[in-house]
Amino acid sequence: MPRVSLEHSEARRRQILAGARRCFSANGFHATSMQDLLNEIGLSAGAFYRYFSGKEELIRTIATETLADVTDSLAAHLQQHDAPLPELLASLPTAHIKTLHDDDQARLIVQIWTEAMRDDALSDVVRAGLGRINALLEAELSERRRAGELPADADPAAVARVIMAALQGFIVQRAAFKVDEPELFASGLSMLFRG
């Protein structure tokens, strides 16, 4: 039997992840059966299990990749914007971060956060991912404090947490309540830091 190339293996893995994202976004983690996944990706159970041990590993992988994408997108956004802090914050809701603008991604990340309350291994993945995102914001805010854009006694870690909570709230509103008002949200974030 010929060996499968690394490229083929990676393409198959990507196929599984893409199909799982579609299923989970549409139906949720628990309402999506293994048969639903197999039907969506067009593979047998044996083929699936060559790549993932089960739904839990699949969910953790999706969470890891989703949070890494947010981290990378946020890092790129912060590097490209040297505007004053209110304008930088106002730009976040319209930044090229999939979970902020893609309904499927927003639903998926909210499900990941919810599932993390029940799954300790997933909770570890989510905490680590959110920790990296928070660290990016904290580093940016520390620089802004040194530049005088935040009061000298401002705690960048605390401010980063508040910004993070606001962004998470925006995602939840989009995913759960179909509220899609990035301009309003951007204006509100900007006003929080105007002198």
From TrEMBL:
Pfam families the record matches: TetR_C_6 (PF13977), TetR_N (PF00440)
Upper classification of the organism: Bacteria, Bacillati, Actinomycetota, Actinomycetes, Kitasatosporales
Protein name as catalogued: TetR/AcrR family transcriptional regulator
PROSITE patterns cross-referenced by the UniProt entry: HTH_TETR_1, HTH_TETR_2
Record-annotated DNA-binding residue ranges: 33-52
InterPro entries xrefs: BetI_C, DNA-bd_HTH_TetR-type_CS, Homeodomain-like_sf, HTH_TetR, Tet_transcr_reg_TetR-rel_C_sf
Species of origin: Streptacidiphilus pinicola
Keyword Transmembrane helix annotated: no
Keyword DNA-binding: yes
Record GO terms (molecular function): DNA binding
Domain of life, source organism: Bacteria
